[in-house]
Each structure stands twice: as C-alpha cells, then as structure tokens.
TrEMBL record:
<dbReference type="InterPro" id="IPR029058">
    <property type="entry name" value="AB_hydrolase_fold"/>
</dbReference>
<dbReference type="InterPro" id="IPR054579">
    <property type="entry name" value="GCE-like_dom"/>
</dbReference>
<feature type="signal peptide">
    <location>
        <begin position="1"/>
        <end position="19"/>
    </location>
</feature>
<keyword id="KW-0719">Serine esterase</keyword>
<keyword id="KW-0378">Hydrolase</keyword>
<protein>
    <recommendedName>
        <fullName>4-O-methyl-glucuronoyl methylesterase-like domain-containing protein</fullName>
    </recommendedName>
</protein>
<keyword id="KW-0732">Signal</keyword>
<feature type="domain" description="4-O-methyl-glucuronoyl methylesterase-like">
    <location>
        <begin position="224"/>
        <end position="373"/>
    </location>
</feature>
<dbReference type="GO" id="GO:0052689">
    <property type="term" value="F:carboxylic ester hydrolase activity"/>
</dbReference>
<dbReference type="Pfam" id="PF22244">
    <property type="entry name" value="GCE_fung"/>
</dbReference>
Amino acid sequence: MKTFLVYLLISYPLSMAMAQFEPNYDERQVPEFKIPDPLTTFDGKKITATSEWENTRRPELYQFFEEQVYGKVPGKLDSLSFNMVETSDDALNGKAQRKQVEVSLFKNGKSLDFNILLYLPKSRKPAPIFLGYNFYGNHSITDDPNVIVSKAWAMDSEEFGISGHTLTEASRGVRVHRWALEKIIDGGFGLATIYYGEVDPDKNDFSDGLHSLFYMESQEIPKKDEWGSIAAWAFGMSRALDYLETDPDIDASHVVSFGHSRLGKAALWAGASDTRFAGVISNDSGCGGAALSKRQVGETVGRINTSFPHWFCDNFTEYNENEEALPVDQHELLALIAPRPLYVASAEDDQWADPRGEFLSAHYATSVYDLYGTKGISDTKMPEVNSPVQNTLAYHIRTGKHDVTEYDWEQYIDWAKRFVAVKP
C-alpha cells in the first residue's frame, strides 16, 4: 500500500488518489483468464507465416485497438511546416549541437505549434535518435539556460514552482535526472524531446490542443471511436518524425520512440501506428500501456478511465471493470511493433503499474517475434531485479520507484547499440 500512495502523490492529484478503490497487489487474487493468442484471428484462423500476420492478423488487431482503445485520428492535416528557432554548436560543454525547432500543424483554417528540443552528438553525424515527450517543458530536462520556456498550459506543481498552470524559470532543470543527456550523447545518440502539453494539454478538456483542429462544424468533443490524448500524443510524435526525416544531421531510419508512464503508453501506440519508428521503449507504462489488463493488478481499466477520461477513446469505457470481455490484451499491442526492437521496463516498487503484468505482456508477445525469427522473452519466470534480458524484445525490472533513472538509460543505450542503430 505504501508504494501505491507514493506513486499517486508523485503522479496524480490527491483528490483522484482518494477516490480510488483499494487496488489488488496479491497474485492470489488475480482472476483466472485466457490469454488471447496473437497468432489466432478473431474468427479462429491460425497464423503461421509473416505474410498472414502482416496482411490479416495485424490489421484486425490494430483496428480493434484503434477503434476501441486509443481512438482513430479523424483525418489528415492540411499541411505542416518546420522553423529552426535556435541552434548552437557549443552545447553540453562543446560535445553536442543544440537545435530548437518549431513544428506547425494546419487543419481547417486552424493551427497548432509545438517545439522540438534536439541535442546531437558532434562525434557522429547523422545520428540515431531517442524521441520522447517530457512532462514539465523542454527547459525542465536540462540546466541549459538557452532552452526556451514553453507558454503552453501546464499542471500546477508546488514542488516545481508551477502555479497558475504557467511554466517559468523556476522549473528549469527540475527533471534533469530523468534524461541522461551526456550518457546519450557519449553513446553516439541524439535526443529529441517535446513538452507534451504543447501537443495536447493533459486535462479533461477537448476545447484546445490537437483535437480542436479536426472538429467538424459544431463539434466540441471527439466521437466515441475518435482519439483521446494518448493517440494525440502519438500523432505528435509522428509529426516530429516528419521533421527528423528532413534534418541531414539525423539518421531518421534509426529513431526510437521512448516514453515513461502515460507517455510510455503514447510511445507504444506511436510505434504500433507508425512503422517508421525503428524501435520503441516503454518505461513503467502500466495499464493501457505494456501491462496486461486482464490481470486487474494495481491500476485497472475502470480506474484509469475514471481518473483520466481524456486519455482513451470513449469506446474503451465499455471495459471498465469488465476486462474479461476484452477480445485482446496489451501483449497484442506489443506484438504490433514486431519485428522491430522493443524494450519494456518496470520498477520493483511501482506495483501500481503491475511489473509482472508488463513482463508477461512481453513474454506473450514473443510468439510474433518468433514468427520473424527474432528473439524475445521466452521464459515465464521474471528475471532478477537489475538483471536485464536484452534481445530484440527486451525487458528489465530495476530497484526503485516509478521514475526514469540513469540505470534505465544505461540499458536502453546499450540495447539500442546492439539492436536498433548498429554501426556499420
């Protein structure tokens, strides 16, 4: 119970935490359920070849997640543009290049802008990239005084000096520990990050952010099968990738979609939706991310849809405290990323995100990786803490809480060197 409360105080408003029912962390109380077979179609046909997976099974699985879980993107942009706002060849004590790029999206006579902060190693061009959102503004991930402070809506945080939903200098560098910038650069990778609130503010209000660009006349909220915020954030990652493909300093064929917690859910959906991503990393993504829903451990479908009704499409509420009715589970979301490299990571004290459920999800997705002749997680026994299993489909559980640590990044960089961005 201690871990549950710590996690909530870090990540959720206290009023939401108090509204939750007592979560289950007892393996003896996990309900019996059948694991849906990724390699058996909804009408019972067994998939035995990659062509059958790609042409039959993968499309029907993707359609279910798109229409019943994350929601469909209602159309295409009219256009988009990129503007280099700032650049320096003397970042991180001279070892990196910094770029700040404004991405502008246009639809139905309306527009939305978000900013990509890039750090690229001067020692390797073009550079492979980790692309991921941050929670409190691009300036929060570094002490670099040149990084622009976002003007977008932000969650208030007494700890980080954020009030009136406005980001200021007070929050510069408050999340340095989550972004091992120098390790990433020294490893030969670049980092691209975006403040997620610029793409879609994390609040149950669809009047602003990305959704509003796509509304038909008199529409005020997405339709039941249309995108929630997670799908909007995933869409934003793909638009950032559109920019990365234009930058000669970046190896856009080796971009890894990275995310932590709710943004880990977005990174997974981005990787499933956009096969241009060369790899995907899910860090403590939990319910609606890597963890199996049917286990009902920690956060459940009903709890997440109640606390964060804007994250998923409205159709997903049909499965509130009704996970047994789901014809899929999250291992099949992971399988949609195959055969591309995928890393699922958990934290020992983060029981709310169900580490065992995240591990088992990676295990049950392995059959699709096997179909391609690549290696996943074959063992049903979880590895020891701080003992990573690094294959094309990788997994680790580390000591500590719901967070991103230097240990996590050390594993991701090593894995990405071996499986994503192999040097010629």
